[in-house]
DNA sequence: TATTGTTATACTCTATAACTATA
DNA sequence: TATAGTTATAGAGTATAACAATA
């Protein structure tokens, strides 16, 4: 399942666990040998687990990223955050909007440059982040337990793929 | 850049390479230690490279997956394809629609079950797929060259993460 | 009654372009 | 003229629900 609703409240008459015909599985030899598809399936599974871990706090992976980034970089500008996360700047606006609306973060107009907004966590935001990090640590332990070699080796390879080794 | 347009025709006055303020990079120690975020960034980079490789053929990663799957499993049903790819069945409909409209695949009503549609590649679809696979192989070589250990070891770990080791 | 494929709908993620206010 | 943030818009991608044809 890829989201909370699917797991929590799937319609009873929508789908049974097994289909009548075509339940033979397909030959996926080719796709299983491709890095792109393997990454996609791994991400689907890891994000599902993450959703289980922090979904009940109504925090998306992106929101979690921003919270942790601002915690370690208080006063960071929105454009700097966007650049660090590798997304375009308009993408960050609604993310901060949500965090601000929930009282987890605040925008502070820069004293030295009136265009810029420094982002800070509120006490509540910092507190929630600690809870989230604790849940996240459980999530990562769960996911890492599936690995054959160590987490650090996988992380190193993933960051190499990301071009930021 | 995450898509073709961004690279090909970015507006000249939209963004320069360096911002005036806030160009210091942030402390990302925490995020860089998380599997979920590392996978996300790796996927972004790998899909960017894949886009470079097959984007000019107007084929999305999902379409490529379906083409290769149908090539190795002629006559596969839409529901079986959806299940193999881990997506809901309605998701497959527009994908097959597109492939059919371009003459790359065909729907054939099953002789034994009038509800089912068997999917086959056309000669043109099979031909294009061969071209795409050749381009894909270059893409995979390029991406794999970033790795420290071998591709097979990474694939094994990714499929373990995906819960399908 | 159940299943395959489909349509309708909605929500998320993402990017681009253009606007505002400041510099 | 350039930059930070914002707004508006559009296009993927994904899921859920309900429907038509068939079983």
Distance between the termini of chain A: 32 Å
Backbone CA Rg of chain A: 20 Å
Show unreliable segments of chain A: 1-23
Largest sheet of chain A: 3 strands, antiparallel
Number of distinct beta strands of chain A = 3
For the record, the CATH architecture of the domain at 60-165 in chain A stands as Orthogonal Bundle
Q: What's the assembly state of these chains? A: homodimer
**CATH topology value of the domain at 60-165 in chain A:** Arc Repressor Mutant, subunit A
Strand content of chain A: 5-15%
CATH superfamily of the domain at 60-165 in chain A: Winged helix-like DNA-binding domain superfamily/Winged helix DNA-binding domain
What fraction, in percent, of the residue positions of chain A are helical?
Answer: 55-70%
Which structural class do the helices and strands of chain A define? mainly alpha
Largest interface (C-beta under 8 Å):
A-B, 68 and 68 residues
Can you tell me the overall shape of chain A? elongated
- Helix and strand sequence of chain A: HHHHEHHEEHH
Individual helix count of chain A: 8
The level 1 CATH classification of the domain at 60-165 in chain A is Mainly Alpha
User: What average pLDDT do the residues of chain A reach?
Assistant: 88
